[in-house]
Write the structure tokens for this entry.
Amino acid sequence: MTAPRRTTGTAHTDEASIEAIEALRTPLTRYCYRLLGSAADTDDAVQETLIRASRHAVRYDPARARLTTWVHRIATNVCIDMLRGAKRRALVMDLRSAADGGELGPPLPPERWIEPMPDRRLFGTDEPEAAALERETVRLAFIALLQRLAPRQRAVLILRDILGFSARETAEILDATVPAVNSALQRARATLNADRPEVSDALDPGDAEQRELLRRYVTAFESHDVTAMTALLREDAVASMPPFAWLLHGGDRIAALIASSDSCAGARLVPTSLNGAPGFGQYRPDVEGLLRPFALVLVEPRGGRIARITTFLDTTGRFKEFGLPELLDR
């Protein structure tokens, strides 16, 4: 699509005002995060998009496209540029080299991992069906699955199936033809459907059974109760700790490790939410007895028991972003 022609009227100025462009920050965050799988990269991409859109607002022509279409075109170009030459981000369970229960080994670089995001940055609708789609498509396992698609296929699928852009608008955003967009969408859907992950239970504060499950998990973790923890975990549960390519299969093995680890002595869990799923900020005591941030923890229930635990190390600087205090009084 050629650049929108300049206009001499004020319509484009009203439509593409700084305020109107800034109002797209949250939708752009949801789009760029699904494309990039990184919180830090998402912030960079969104900021660069808003800067470019504001700088070139005079070129926007409302007769040619909706403002959101025009700005998403800019965001797509920014993200695809960022993805050129980048290695695919993943979860530990997606790595063939992951060691099951062995030594941790050296940490992998941060750019290898899918990063969690707080719910407040990912959701924007109260309509039940749309809200369910939002939650399904920001789960960490789904974000990791998206990264298996080529960047342009990824963009097509997100724009069409998740954000609801038309085929024509998507073609404009990607500077492609409608048939090319439809073909890319079919290939992307086939790839995802061939390896779609099992669906974990979404965080539901109104679900009394889920609240009780999470309460019992906190109690078992903080008391190192291996029997109680084993009862809460599925037999096929998986635990991982990025940035290490390490994982542990089996509820009994995970419970035994948690209960036997001296490093968790005195640790506390404070509830939060990550990618639409239950989560915690894990705090550990320092030499003065103050509880300081240690890691963000994602806990994924499935069918009334815990199916997956992901402990994101090197996330102590992000606790405030997830609404967690920076220090706890023991």
Q: What stands out?
A: The longest strand covers residues 291-302.
